[in-house]
Amino acid sequence: MWLSMLTAYPLGVALHRPVGCLASGDVGIRREDTRGFAVPTSGQDVHDGPSLFVKGDLPVVGAESREQDASMPAATPRLRHPLPSLVGLSALIAVVVLRIATVGSRLPATPLEARLVDAVFPLARLSGSVPPEGLGEWMVRAQLGTYAAATGAFGRHADVLGGARELAVALCAVLLVAVVVVLRELRTPLVATAIALALLVVCEPAITALATLAPGLAGVAWTAVGVALVLRPGPTARLLGAVAALVGVATAPLLAVPLMVVVAAATVRRWAPAALVALSFGASVLVVEVLSLPVDRSVAPVALVVAALLVAARAAREIVRRTAHRPLPSRLGVLVGAVAVLAVAVVPTVAPVVARPSPHLALAGWLLSETDPAATVSVPDGVRSDLVRDGVPAARLVPDGALVVSSGEPAAGTVLARFGTLGVATSVPGASESVTRALAGEQLARNPNLDAAPAVLAAVRAGNVDTRLLVVLAGLAGRGRVVVTDLPAVIGEDPSTPRHRMELAGVDASTTEWLRAQQPPFAPVLSGLTGSPSLNWPLPAPTALLGR
Amino acid sequence: MTGRATEGGAVMARRILLAGLVTALVGLLSAVAIGPAAAASGTYLRLAHLSPDTPDVDVSVTSFSGATEVLKGVGYGDVSSYKRIEPGTYTVSMRPAGAPASSPPLVTGTLEAAEGSAYTAAGLGPRAAPAVRVLTDRLTPPGPGEARVRVVQGAEQAGDVAIHWNQAAVADKIAFGSATGYSACARHQP
Asked: In chain A, what percentage of residues exceed pLDDT 70?
């Protein structure tokens, strides 16, 4: 849609066309002096009544103003081939968006994003979520939920966060197109816009600010769309623009301040330039910070990026204007500079990317295969939705679980396993039973009915074996000869976690029946072949089983 | 009025019966505790069936180091005599009497027997949630003029019970399935 909008406005036309007004009643649009640029051939934008003309950086209400704009580019060349130019600009926007997506793919989740995905992911929502912090977060949750439901974004990435980042990328694309449209309405040459975009690509902090989903990004994107639409002729576009701006303000309430300044300036017909808007916005941010008001601050960096983009484009416009009449080498220098910046921008974009680690899949597999299905698990924000998507029942994921998953070192409890950045521990420290297990294991290792490899016997003798496994193995040895082929370690588990898997050989039907007859907490989970079963005792292991 | 009196009498009779059972257990445990202890050293184990709604059981005691002993047909209220065992770790499993060894055990517990100690492995609690409770017995004789008493509450319908010995309270509010520690009491002087 946005590209088609761009196509509908060839650059030469937009450089000098009147724009819509912000004040109610001033809806008249009239054709303006083109001074050598293309003029719309359609008469649909020509109306009677007061006109609003572009004068400098911001729209101003002027009654039949026809004075010359001093800042107007005096010699901006008309594009003879607008389509290639627009294709080039679209490609540059695509590069910016790709760069944002690339950076977003390796950034960890922000606390807000973690809350967002857990709140919005449909299955995770069944087990409850944290209420939104303010209207802005509620709005973003609604937008993310709608977007994910419509596009299935949560299902096509390595983690659920990827779905949220996809919306961030989409919002950035919309934001950039809206900014380009606004720049065109401000008669900014295409090459100036391109230079600003190229600078944006190489500015890592700016890209990072745009790569994460937050109310600020969504609010600025909606507001930019609103402004772009309001600047378009026709009541429908302005109405839609007003609605979009309202959505933007509702999503990022801090944007209300600069918007009100713009509207007020347009109403009194004496507008101050961007500095006033910036000052008002900065002051509002300062007030919010000083008073610690419950207002989302994420709009500040995004707004700063957009402001920098606009300023860069306007500065580039000046450079283009001053070099337009100069000989070819000067213009060529500007062009070469722009290409060089673009080249520098492309390099990090196409370079190999180290994707954000996604240990949740291994964690989910471990929880499903190695832990008691009745054991509840508490997880950090943002991990719950991933685990639910990976198949862990949402009912197991509760705030105060028997197992605790943490991003750093566990505050308490006994560490059981670690998967990348995620560690798993028991919620309370278990009594150290290693000495008791070693005493029992020493006796079991001497049992003449136990036939096992030296490594297995060593593990049993050292007490590095789950108590339930010891008890069942003692029972097996009490019935007759038992062959233990392995006590395999489970990938991801801490070396201090006692072995809780056992592989047997030469097991007859009677022994299998005996194993199946065991009762909790000693009953193992049997799998594998009939004669060579694999036994597993899910974690967490109960304590004080020996000698109770 | 008469009906209530009859019902109250039945309840009283049942309570007296249950209290008698508890008392019998107390006496049994305390008497046995005093009996063989003084004469023997080493490690001893006896088994008790104190789960009232659990049928007779076969109790198997398996040593981690290899030996297995099976005591068949143990009924409610039965307390075996002490059997000398090797110190070490054991599993104690109870199955319905006559059931094959591959059948599900009613309950499984473990015992860590230390040299010179005596233990009672008691099946306690209701059948729905039985447990093997290992009690460490004191086999040394009590002091002169004293007796040593420990209460194991195995009468579910009695609820919490209180035990008095020679008009003196030995224990109070003993819940079903629990056991007290030893209390020293003055011997009864006839």
From this structure: 71
Give the HSE-up count for residue A253: Cα atoms under 13 Å, Cβ half-sphere. 13
Between CA B99 and CA B103 the distance in angstroms is 6
Residue from A460, A519, A526, A537 to probe the interface with B (highest B Cβ count within 10 Å): A519
CB burial of residue A171 (10 Å; 0-12, 13-18, 19+)? buried
More confident residue, A253 or A2: A253
Q: Which residues contact A531 (CB under 8 A, 6 or more apart)?
A: A505, A506, A507, A508
SS (H, E, C) A302-326: HHHHHHHHHHHHHHHHHHHHHHCCC
Quote the CA–CA distance of A247 and A233 in Å, as a whole number: 21
Report d(CA A14, CA A16) in Å as an integer: 5
Q: Give the C-alpha distances (Å, rounded to integers) separating A293 from A133, A141, A255, A259, A286.
A: 12, 21, 15, 20, 10
Residue A364 CA to residue A470 CA, distance in Å, equals 27
Q: How many CB atoms lie within 10 A of CB B186?
A: 11
Sequential DSSP letters for A101-126: HHHHHHSPPPHHHHHHHHHHSTTGGG
B87 touches chain A (CB under 8 A): no
Q: What's the confidence (pLDDT) of residue A331?
A: 59
- Provide, as residue numbers in chain A, all residues whose Cβ is less than 8 Å from the Cβ of B66: 446-449, 477-478
- B68 and A478 within 8 Å at the Cβ level: the answer is yes
Residues forming a β-bridge with B50: B124
How many angstroms separate the Cα of A263 from the Cα of each of A256, A269, A271, A272?
10, 10, 9, 11
CA distance A515 to A471: 12
Residue A509 parent element (H or E): helix A509-516
State yes or no: pLDDT of A529 exceeds 90.
no
User: Taking Cα atoms as reference points, which of A411, A186, A396, A216 lies closest to residue A306?
Assistant: A216
CA distance A121 to A382: 10
| E strands, A455-496, in order | 482-486
Q: Give how far A547 is from chain B: nearest CA, Å.
A: 4
Element (H, E) at A339: helix A328-350
d(C-alpha A163, C-alpha A145), whole Å: 10
Give the A:B interface size as CB pairs under 8 Å.
77
A35 token code pair: 């001074």
**From CA B30, how far away is CA A544, in angstroms rounded?**
28
pLDDT of A296: 73
**A111-120 vs A135-151: helix axis angle to the nearest 10?**
60
Nearest to B113 by CA among B132, B89, B93, B133: B89
In terms of DSSP bridges, do strands A482-486 and A450-452 run parallel, antiparallel, or are they unpaired?
parallel
- A235 touching B (Cβ < 8 Å): no
Q: Give the span between the Cα atoms of B173 and B163, in whole angstroms.
A: 9
Where is pLDDT greater, at A25 or A218?
A: A218
